Amino acid sequence: MQILVTGGLGYIGSHTSVLLLEKGYDIVVVDDLSNSNIEVLDNIFKITSKKPAFEKIDLKDKKAVSKLFQDYTFDGIIHFAAHKSVNESVNYPEKYFSNNVGSLENIIDEIKLLENPINFIFSSSCTVYGQADLMPIDESFPLKEAESPYGQSKRQCEEVLKSLHDSGHSFKNITLRYFNPIGAHPSALIGELPLGIPENLVPYITQTAIGKRECLTVFGNDYETADGTCVRDYIHIMDLAEVHITCLEKLISSNDDSLFKVYNVGTGKGTSVLELIHIFENVNDIKLNYKIGERRKGDVVTAYADTSKIKEELNWSTKNSLKNALKSAWNWELNLNKDE
Ligand code: NAD
Ligand code: WQD
């Protein structure tokens, strides 16, 4: 089985590539390195002793995408490649629509030419729910007006996939709405590699703990939550990687040539920013320098998943603890800085 992994050198793609190789799949990693590093390929090799095929392609380039589909035959596609910075998307919305939606459309144009229904997994995000009215969030909740062009681009991608399904074209699709992935591979050889100042909480915490940043600002402690800080559903990256294998197996074994499913991927448990900081401090025996600051514009107050659909239909749930995720995030940061 040969699987195309777009964005396979990125954070989620690299962890999933490792599991795919360990499960015996052949993979072709496509990445334009816009938010990743070619060294990740060597580290995937160090972990798995397997070197995947790699193509440095910008998926916005229609001709290059056509050539990719001429050069290889794929049994499945996991489409991770996208830009993901909420902040940047506010300043450069067009960049987000052309990359996130445009790349998907180029791939879909090729899928339409295939004889057999392709197995396709798409990376969506809990951001499509905006601030949901109730918790936990299940997949039937209405998709709210997105807070950012990034969120809007993910919504549009979901609509593009729905249109392809509704048009009657045979293809098997699972869309995964990830909640907040954190942590790193237990080897500490791959992990999250933010460019510049991290926007996400956990890389900011680890960079503060190691001394790259002076102080973490907690964005607001006057929300209507137990301790006043925002609540999220943090999922270990190894659990998130694993769910792609489960979904791929489901797609491959299904006889339904127009299978079309959307699943939340989270733990089902909400954790506040302060709770997360304290767990990080305890499991790693570190005192973190942090202060309370202003609310961050666009933040939802609370978001955690109802995970019953994926549990019932695919018998999948998370296995790793938040403690384990925060230990692995710290080990990754230590490994990144071991020579300094
Ligand atoms: P990432 O930036 O680490 O990985 C994305 C990879 O795609 C990068 O290696 C980048 O170089 C590549 N890429 C981007 N545009 C490309 C293009 N035009 N052609 C080829 N390669 C391209 O991001 P990630 O955290 O691994 O996220 C993977 C997917 O999951 C994205 O679609 C993202 O929107 C989605 N997602 C991420 C999170 C999160 O918090 N990390 C949450 C929900 C959803
Ligand atoms: C988590 C919590 C912050 C940094 C983002 C995207 C979303 C999805 C997941 C891709 C929030 C607080 C953060 C800091 C802080 N990604 N925080 N100080 O906002 O849930 O979602 O990633 O699809 O689209 O928006 O994640 O890690 O940025 O923040 O207090 O320096 O940590 O306010 O409550 P978020 P995050």
Written account of the structure:
By secondary structure, the protein is of the alpha/beta class. It has 2 domains: 2-181 and 235-265, NAD(P)-binding Rossmann-like Domain (Rossmann fold), CATH 3.40.50.720; 201-231 and 268-335, UDP-galactose 4-epimerase, domain 1 (Alpha-Beta Complex). Helix content is 40%, strand content 16%. The protein has 11 helices and 13 strands. It has helices at 11-22, 39-48, 62-71, 86-91, 93-111, 149-166, 201-209, 237-253, 273-284, 308-314, 322-336; strands at residues 2-6, 26-30, 53-55, 76-79, 119-125, 172-178, 180-182, 216-219, 231-232, 234-236, 260-265, 271-272, 290-293. A 7-stranded parallel β-sheet has the order 3-2-1-4-5-6-11, with helices on both faces. Strands 7-10 form a two-stranded parallel ribbon. Strand 1 (2-6), helix 1 (11-22) and strand 2 (26-30) form a beta-alpha-beta unit. The radius of gyration is 19 Å and the shape is globular. The chain starts with a strand and ends with a helix. Bound molecules: nicotinamide-adenine-dinucleotide and UDP-4-deoxy-4-formamido-beta-L-arabinopyranose (WQD). Residues 84, 86, 125, 127, 151, 180, 199-201, 204, 216-219, 230, 232, 273, 296, 299 line the site of UDP-4-deoxy-4-formamido-beta-L-arabinopyranose.
Summarize the structure.
The protein is an alpha/beta fold. It has helices at 11-22, 39-48, 62-71, 86-91, 93-111, 149-166, 201-209, 237-253, 273-284, 308-314, 322-336; strands at residues 2-6, 26-30, 53-55, 76-79, 119-125, 172-178, 180-182, 216-219, 231-232, 234-236, 260-265, 271-272, 290-293.
